[in-house]
Give the backbone structure.
Amino acid sequence: MRSLLLRGQQFLHQTSFSDAFDPDAQAYITAVETADAQVLELAVKTAINNFVVGCKADGIWDAIKASAILAGARTLTGALVPLKGTAPTNFNFVNGDYDRKTGLVGNGSTKYLNSNRDGNADPTNNCHGAVYATTALSVSGGAYFGARDTVSSSNRNAVLVSRSGGASTLNFSARSGFNVGRLATDVGLIGVFRNNGTSESARSGNASIQFTVNSAVPGPNKITVFAQNTFGNVNNWVDARLAFYSIGESLDLALLDARVTTLINAYGAI
């Protein structure tokens, strides 16, 4: 009887907090708990709510069109519940690949997510793609996310972040026919965005940089995470551990970086 009373009090306590949560945050929490078949800790729920409310306050929430928090949930099934947009399709990830504090780890050969977001779903000069890596990929040649298509006989990337040419050379591309590179730390938020026709901007290692490169209309290939969709064939897998991804319209990656970092740090205290 005492056990039932305590559980009832805990439920009422959690409900009183959740009633004050942002509706979008609560909808996501409910979906994750349903997928997990378990209730999340109040601290996890609060971290999610703070993230959503913070993104709205920063003016970046609406730009996020396809996203998943690949951490926090109690199970892999819960981690694949979409924060926004369509749920990703899981290719070969298993329960042992998932850690609720640090995210989902790839194997560099077969495991990836199909975001189910078309490469041309967002406007040519209004797009972004980003992931949050808790562990970087170990070899060059991998792509954290990306989609490449052939448009008018020209190869064009929708959004892409890959590594080549050395241990720490990241390549960024958003609506451009080639990659532009920089030396960067690929732990934390890694992303690229475009908000005009003549330049694109990238962020990694808490630093941002802009490249002068004209935009080109992308193709419709689905954007993959933990790998690149190249002309409809998935390749360039990574063995990184990722805790978040976001795809959509242009946004301030520094603001997203701060919000996601705070969220993942909160999960670390679970």
The first helix runs from residue 2 to 18.
